[in-house]
UniProtKB/TrEMBL annotation:
Pathway: Cell wall biogenesis; peptidoglycan biosynthesis
Catalytic activity, as annotated: Preferential cleavage: (Ac)2-L-Lys-D-Ala-|-D-Ala. Also transpeptidation of peptidyl-alanyl moieties that are N-acyl substituents of D-alanine
One GO term of the biological process aspect: regulation of cell shape
Cellular compartment(s): Cell membrane; Membrane
Domain Penicillin-binding protein transpeptidase: 352-676
Organism field: Lentibacillus cibarius
Similarity comment: family membership: Belongs to the transpeptidase family.
InterPro entries reported for this sequence: Beta-lactam/transpept, Beta-lactam/transpept-like, PBP_dimer, PBP_dimer_sf, PCN-bd_Tpept
GO cellular component: plasma membrane
Residue ranges constituting the Penicillin-binding protein dimerisation domain according to the UniProt record: 59-301
Name of the top EC class for this enzyme: hydrolase
Protein name as catalogued: serine-type D-Ala-D-Ala carboxypeptidase
Transmembrane segments: none
One MF term in the entry's GO annotations: serine-type D-Ala-D-Ala carboxypeptidase activity
Length: 690
């Protein structure tokens, strides 16, 4: 019994030794592993701890400016205070709320007329959630927590916040302001500056307070921004166009176009006019900032990768002094006509005019005035010279005569007897009075409708017209006549450097009577710009030039208001030479001269004594006013086109006044014509004297 006890005692130390040995081995393995981690892989793991990444952000720069042909600033940039926010990559909603709460102590947000800061129900629910996170989470079931991802849980929690819990009365004004600031912060994308408030909304005191406390406002910066400025106010502003706001950002319908060209979603871009047309050069080159962030997305360093450069400047063909004078003349004559005959001219509300250099296509002025009778106010409507089309009446007769020459249905000097045209089944058509025997020059000088009717009938296949009987007629004559007209720019795009242009209305009823109306400008419609291009083509010996607003593009000079070196010039571009004999063109030029200079000319008594010697054509077209299909007023469109001096044209013009009353009236088209030509030549004389 005693031996057994001794043997049992001897076994206990042996087992302990095995245990100690096992512990020793494990400890040795641990030491070995630590050695491997520290000695062999230490640098690798330390690099992972210290790992950073580089990200780039682009800061928008001011857009290029626009100047007129004389160096006068049309569109510029005004610097203004701005408070911006650039979040880190890992910034969370709670982080933005913390910034908003601190920022609210230094700035104020306009609450709006209703005092509600433009806050939506969702804005209020998101704020309530951040302030009551535990309560919101308690409204989720265990199954929802297990089966929903974070996004689904968040949406469900917001849905379960009762509207009553977030009504405006439940929040203080300070809380509402914090929400409004956070709403702006939430628009910011990682490492991309977002403007919170700027311009008049930021006082100098607020700007200074924020700048002083930037160290406690992560991501916030007190800087300067810019806003478009218009020294000439509304004059030419429609043509200059507008840009989007930062909240609008790039245009949704062209999102892919902008994003593939390096734009950010909140970049301001041209959305109309010349701002849109020349967006690629006006936008400038953004300043590129390199941000160094740690693995948590926190910015640890930043540096300018390369400096930005504001957009290139445009020098336009427009003469702003002339533009202002043209608008003044349009207002004056529109007002005079309405005051002289308020009843007859009760539907007259618009006057439009374009002036351009027929040798270069440069647009010197494009003016329009609209009269609002309810408010008794005038408004700039120059854009209608491109977007609104009207029947111009006899102004197109130069093109009709040339179509007659070229199609071979008449020869220069051919005579017709001007008496009413009576085609069976068609209302009688005639000139303003019987003019007797007229040739082509007489027809232009005295504005014979009947002469044009004969051209149209012959182009349609009728060479033996007899009063009261039907005529032979080929509907293809419409296409033929329009083809000749289009060579002058009538009924087709002018090619102008502008994103919006009407080409007018083309009648669709191919009856013989309508072809006769087409020949005297009372069927299809044309814009004032098309009429200007048409008369310029005649003045320019048959060469149709592309009208343009851009004269040259200039590189900007840093920290200077002066124009920089030329980057690109916009040269004269010939679209086409009309397919007609030069002799034919000269024949019509003579007819146009007689309209303004010879006895019996429809414009002679208004212009014969002018030293600048005009050539061109008058125009009157029926433009009766209808209401619900019922005629309520007899009205006419009054047009005038021309160029001066007729022997060496330096300016061409076209103007139209729609819906003028009939009868003994103020000769508004002639008065406008004299007014704008007087203004042009007076300005040119002043420049020569200088």
């Amino acid at each position: 019994m005693a031996n057994k006890k001794k043997k049992k005692k001897a076994q206990v130390p042996f087992r302990l030794n095995i245990l100690f040995f096992a512990v020793f081995l494990l400890f040795s393995l641990l030491v070995l592993q630590l050695g491997v981690v520290q000695i062999l892989n230490g640098e690798t793991f330390q690099a992972e701890i210290d790992r950073t990444s580089n990200d780039y952000s682009e800061i928008p720069v001011p857009r290029g400016k626009m100047y007129d042909r004389n160096g006068n600033l049309i569109v510029g940039n005004n610097a203004e205070y701005a408070i911006t926010y650039t979040p880190d990559k890992g910034t969370q909603a709670q982080d933005r709320l913390d910034v908003a709460e601190k920022l609210a102590a230094y700035i104020s947000i306009d609450p709006g007329d209703d005092g509600q800061y433009g806050l939506t129900l969702r804005n209020r629910k998101e704020y309530w959630y951040l302030e009551n996170t535990k309560t919101a989470k308690s409204r989720l079931t265990d199954a929802e927590i297990d089966n929903m991802d974070n996004g689904e849980q968040y949406s469900t929690m917001l849905e379960r916040i009762e509207d009553e819990e977030v009504k405006f009365a439940n929040f203080t004004d300070q809380q509402l302001e914090i929400m409004a600031i956070k709403k702006e912060l939430d628009k910011a994308m990682a490492l991309t500056p977002q403007t919170i408030i700027k311009g008049p909304e930021v006082t100098s005191e607020e700007f200074a307070r924020v700048a002083e406390h930037l160290d406690e406002l992560p991501g916030v910066n007190a800087t300067t921004d810019w806003e478009r400025a218009y020294p000439y106010n509304d004059t030419f502003r429609q043509f200059a166009g507008r840009i989007t706001s930062e909240s609008e950002g790039i245009l949704a319908e062209k999102e892919d176009y902008y994003l593939t060209r390096g734009y950010s979603r909140n970049d301001r871009v041209g959305r109309s006019g010349l701002e849109e047309q020349y967006e690629s050069v006006l936008r400038g080159r953004k300043e590129k900032i390199k941000y160094t962030t740690d693995k948590n997305g926190t910015i640890v360093d930043s540096d300018v990768a390369f400096e930005g450069q504001r957009g290139k400047d445009l020098v336009l063909t427009i003469d702003m002094e002339l533009q202002e004078k043209v608008n003044k003349v349009l207002r004056r004559e529109l007002k005079t006509a309405i005051q002289n005959q308020p009843y007859e001219n009760r539907y007259m509300d618009t006057a439009l005019a374009v002036m351009m250099n027929p040798k270069t296509g440069e647009i010197l002025a494009a003016g329009g005035q609209y009269y609002n009778s309810d408010k008794n106010k005038f408004k700039n409507a120059g854009l209608r010279t491109i977007t609104s089309a009207y029947s111009p009446g006899s102004a197109v007769k130069g093109a009709t005569v040339l179509a007659g020459y070229e199609s071979g249905v008449i020869d220069p000097g051919d005579y017709f007897y001007d008496a009413p045209i009576d085609i069976k089944g068609t209302p009688i058509k005639k000139s303003y009075r019987d003019l007797g025997k007229v040739n082509d020059l007489d027809a232009l000088r005295r504005s014979s409708n009947v002469y044009m009717f004969y051209i149209a009938m012959r182009m349609g296949g009728e060479f033996n017209y007899q009063p009261g009987k039907s005529i032979d007629f080929d509907p293809d004559a419409f296409a033929e006549m329009r083809n000749y007209f289009s060579q002058f720019g009538l009924g087709v795009s002018t090619g102008i450097d502008f994103p919006l242009e009407s080409t007018g209305y083309e009648g669709s009823d191919p009856r013989a009577g309508n072809l006769l109306d087409l020949a005297i400008g009372q069927y299809d419609t044309y814009t004032t710009m098309q009429l200007a291009q048409y008369v310029s083509t005649i003045a320019n010996d048959g060469y149709r030039l592309r009208p343009h607003f851009l004269k040259s593009i200039h590189n900007p000079i840093s920290h200077s208001e002066e124009l920089g070196p030329i980057y690109q010039t916009n040269n004269t571009e010939v679209i086409n030479r009309v397919d007609m004999s030069e002799d034919y063109i000269q024949r019509v030029q003579e007819g146009f001269r007689q309209v303004f200079q010879e006895s019996g000319g429809t414009a002679t008594r208004h212009f014969a004594n002018k030293s600048y010697k005009v050539a061109g054509k008058t125009g009157t077209a029926e433009a009766d006013v209808y209401d619900d299909g019922e005629k309520v007023h007899d009205a006419e469109n009054l047009a005038l086109i021309g160029y001066a001096p007729y022997d060496e044209p330096e300016v061409a013009f076209a103007l139209i006044v729609p819906k003028a009353g009939t009868g003994n009236r103020h000769p508004i088209n002639h008065e406008i014509g004299k007014g704008i030509l007087d203004a042009y030549f007076e300005l040119e004389k002043g420049k020569e004297e200088e």
